[in-house]
Amino acid sequence: MNDVLRLEGVGKTYGLGGPAPVTVLDGLDLTVARGEVVALVAPSGAGKSTLLHIAGLLDTPDAGRVILAGRDMTGLPDRARTEARRQELGFVYQFHHLLPEFSAAENIVLPQLANGVSGRDAQARAADLLGRVGLAHRADHRPAQMSGGEQQRVAFCRALANQPALLLADEPTGNLDPETSDKVFDVLMTLVRDTGLSALIATHNHALADRMDRIVRLAAV
Ligand SMILES: Nc1ncnc2c1ncn2[C@@H]1O[C@H](COP(=O)(O)OP(=O)(O)OP(=O)(O)O)[C@@H](O)[C@H]1O
Looking at residue 25, what is its pLDDT? Predict the structure, then answer.
């Protein structure tokens, strides 16, 4: 199995059985191959967040299957899904969501400790990742002491801390001005390529989407 993510016939309807059900996804097939970076482009309201939540095991589809790293997630109990999420997935959002009271390095160390990595190994990995995004000199700074672009670069490192199989990103540079967005996106792409990571990256920015391996367009149902 060479696909890191396979969505097969995925459907999602909100308010099923109620007076006003909203079908957002219907028979959706999507794959991300190992090492592939896929852009997800969707008009507002087409279900981009719903799709990312389903792929990220934060929500379950009403129909179809989600196969992550070769393992069918359908019907797994919450605990197993949480475990798979922690082991296989990294997340980046439009806003960095770093813990404000911790330094850049600590923000990257903490998720590793939660996954059973030793303190020494976690710190070495944090230092390596910060070096890759050009922030070795910011390791001891807290988020509020960094610029928006720097905060987002730390968030990329945190997403990769546990060496996930797949990165899921929702407008990862959407909060930055266009020039910073371009530069920070370069950093993300270099990081993804250098680590051989697979990624599904939602963006409204067509120039950024064009730089990925493949574009998946989500149409409103
Ligand atoms: N819990 C819910 N109950 C009912 N409808 C919902 C619910 N969550 C989302 N929707 C509807 O489903 C559709 C898709 O929502 P979703 O958040 O996935 O869109 P999106 O493509 O991410 O939009 P945007 O880019 O504007 O954030 C929208 O029409 C939304 O109103």
Answer: 95
